[in-house]
From TrEMBL:
Pfam families: ADH_Fe_C (PF25137), Fe-ADH (PF00465). It comes from Xylanibacter caecicola. Residues 9-178 form the Alcohol dehydrogenase iron-type/glycerol dehydrogenase GldA domain. Gene3D superfamilies: 3.40.50.1970, Dehydroquinate synthase-like - alpha domain (1.20.1090.10). The keyword Cell division does not apply. This is Iron-containing alcohol dehydrogenase. Residues 189-392 form the Fe-containing alcohol dehydrogenase-like C-terminal domain. The keyword S-adenosyl-L-methionine does not apply. Keywords: Oxidoreductase. Signal peptide: none annotated.
Length: 393
């Protein structure tokens, strides 16, 4: 097992009654004037926003609202939030939503105490010295931002989607009520589960070859997701399976099922370019390219793909041909994505053919003009990225 550091400071309050704790948690973590940040209308429609604001009001905690965060959250909304926080003297952010809202809150949190443009951090021009404290009220299990050290923001100027990672932005608390996910549209449920599986796979395809314990945990998580997603697509009010998915979303990205630092992450990088160019749903962008990535890289370590095929996808092990087993596992994952309504090609993702020019542009951006590589399981150069996008087209 490689050396690592594990840090998961977020207080998780999980369950159907968890929302009753919000005001107490804000106060406990020092909040006196709160920005309640949210996305489109889902949190208002469900009554969650009223519940959060009602709790804060009852506890005498002042708050202002800022909604309108869109999936693939935009830098302009972050700037709006920073201005609002400064004007209002905000000292705590409650993010009511999914990865997009939480990530927008994290970026606002970085920006408030910084004189320059918060985008500087995402461009690696400088590092933040502080982040305003944030609490999450999670409504979609997917990105794992409620326990992760990451935020991913899209700059509309040039459609550039970049992540920034630092322990400073980790949520102080995450309130998770599985009932709040009953209203998710099937596509978002499936995209969320895909992202959860992909966060596990990105860590699973690591160069660390001694991960017996975390491999087993990762496999159990993925098998559970494969069962639970069908149960909730069939019955959206299935508390038991909604709960499995919600907790898995956090565990898949808080490093307990493998260290992020040792992982591969090439599929995420390829997917981010698809989201930046076509505003594609994050989980769906990953499903669109994963099998092509897998077929391109599996020879680097066939036995890992065999392990995935047998232990997660339920493929019979063909001892005479590890390659055949590995490829059968990739095909089975592709069938699974299709069965839950995810695209398995770029054409299915964007509902038209992708052009050679668009592929070249995505590979150019992904490799920073050919100056950086992506992935660790197999190191991908710009030409490799073009090849994978072409396989996935
Ligand atoms: O905007 P509203 O109306 O709330 O609708 C949202 C949105 O359209 C809807 N939704 C959320 N909860 C709902 C609901 N609809 C009905 N009922 C509910 N309970 O779902 C849509 C998607 O929401 P979003 O927050 O975008 O989803 P997700 O959590 O998948 O977040 C995706 C973003 O997170 C980033 C992605 O790149 C993407 O920008 N990621 C963040 C990571 C991190 N911070 O650690 C890691 C991930 O790999 C990922 O990159
Ligand atoms: Zn992801």
């Amino acid at each position: 097992m490689k050396d690592f550091s594990f840090y998961a400071p977020t207080e998780v309050v999980f369950g159907a009654k968890s929302e009753e704790k919000i005001a107490e948690l804000v106060r406990h973590h020092g909040g006196t004037k709160v920005l309640v940040h949210y996305g489109g209308e889902s949190a208002r429609r469900s009554g969650l926003l009223d519940k959060v604001c009602g709790q804060l009001t009852a506890a005498g905690i002042e708050h202002v609202l800022l909604g309108g965060v869109v999936p693939n959250p935009r830098l302009s909304k972050v700037h709006e939030g920073i201005d609002l926080c400064r004007r209002e003297g905000i000292d705590f952010i409650v993010a009511v939503g999914g990865g997009s809202v939480i990530d927008s809150a994290k970026a606002i949190g970085y920006g408030v105490g910084y004189d320059g443009d918060v985008w500087d951090f995402y461009l690696r021009r400088t590092v933040p010295q502080s982040c305003m404290p944030i609490g999450a009220v999670l409504t979609i299990p997917a990105a794992g931002s409620e326990m992760s050290d990451s935020s991913v923001i899209t700059n509309e100027d040039g459609n550039i989607k970049l992540g920034y990672t630092s322990n400073l932005c980790r949520c102080k608390f995450a309130v998770m009520n599985p009932e709040r996910t009953y209203t998710l549209p099937p596509y978002q449920t499936a995209a969320g589960v895909t992202d959860i599986i992909m966060h596990t796979l990105e860590r699973y395809f690591s160069k660390d070859d001694d991960m017996t314990l975390v491999d087993s945990m990762a496999e159990a998580l993925m098998r559970t997701m494969k069962d639970s997603v069908f149960a909730v697509l069939d019955n959206p009010h299935d508390y038991r399976n909604r709960a499995q998915i919600m907790w898995a979303g956090s565990l898949a990205h808080n490093d307990i099922t493998g260290s992020r630092a040792a992982g591969d992450w090439a599929t995420h990088q390829l997917g981010h370019e698809l989201s930046a160019m076509f505003d594609a749903t994050h989980g769906a962008s990953l499903a669109a390219v994963w099998a092509s990535w897998a077929r391109y890289v599996y020879k680097e370590n066939v036995s890992r793909f065999v392990r995935l095929a047998v232990n997660v996808m339920g493929v019979d092990n063909d001892y005479t041909s590890p390659e055949a087993t590995a490829l059968a596992g990739i095909a089975a994952m592709e069938r699974f994505f299709r069965a839950i309504g995810m695209p398995v090609s770029i054409k299915e993702l964007i509902v038209r053919d992708v052009t050679d020019g668009e592929i070249d542009e995505m590979a150019r951006k992904c490799s920073c003009g050919g100056t950086v590589t992506k992935g660790t399981f197999k190191v991908l150069h710009r030409d490799d990225m073009v090849a994978i996008y072409r396989m996935a087209r």
